[in-house]
Amino acid sequence: MLLWITAIILGLAAAYMLSTRWIPAGGASCTDLPEKALLSEDTSVLDIREYLDVDHNPLPGAQVLPYPYLKRYLHTIEKQHVFLIAPDKVSKNLAIECCAEIIYRWHTIPL
């Protein structure tokens, strides 16, 4: 009986961890980046790719903040609408889940 309870608890923990990584985060729409003139003053562009990737393919005007530093420097994101540039779907989902309580509208940009 104890073995079954332990297996259920471990299964639920594994399901939770997989859901935060692989299930798409709600509230994010995938779109192209508009021109700089079309961005409003409460909108920012956040690039969570690694520094070397950003160095080889920079995007002018984007705030570079790789995912490992996101929780530490979360207070530097002051805008309500964020265009997120992520290297893959897993990083996108993790970044949106990490910052969901302070940012209301997410837009992701496919690479």
Concise overview:
With about 110 residues, the protein is of the alpha/beta class. It has helices spanning about 1-20, 50-55, 90-100, and strands at about 30, 45, 65, 80-85, 105-110.
3D structure, described in words:
With 111 residues, this protein is α/β, with parallel strands linked by helices. It contains 3 helices and 5 strands; from the N terminus they run H-E-E-H-E-E-H-E. It has helices spanning 2-22, 51-56, 89-99, and strands at residues 28-30, 43-47, 63-64, 81-85, 105-109. It has a 5-stranded parallel beta sheet with strand order 1-5-4-2-3, with no helix packed on it. Strand 2, helix 2 (51-56) and strand 3 (63-64) form a beta-alpha-beta unit. The longest helix has 21 residues, at 2-22. The model has no long low-confidence stretch (mean pLDDT 78).
Topology overview:
Blueprint: H1 2-22, E1 28-30, E2 43-47, H2 51-56, E3 63-64, E4 81-85, H3 89-99, E5 105-109
Parallel strand pairs: 1-5, 2-3, 2-4, 4-5
What share of residues are in beta strands?
A: 15-25%
The total beta strand count reads 5
Rounded to the nearest angstrom, the distance between the terminal CA atoms is 49 Å
Query: Could you tell me the mean pLDDT?
Result: 78
Order of helix and strand elements from N to C terminus: HEEHEEHE
Helix content: 25-40%
Protein structure class: alpha/beta
Tally the helices: what do you get? Answer: 3
Sheet of most strands: 5 strands, parallel
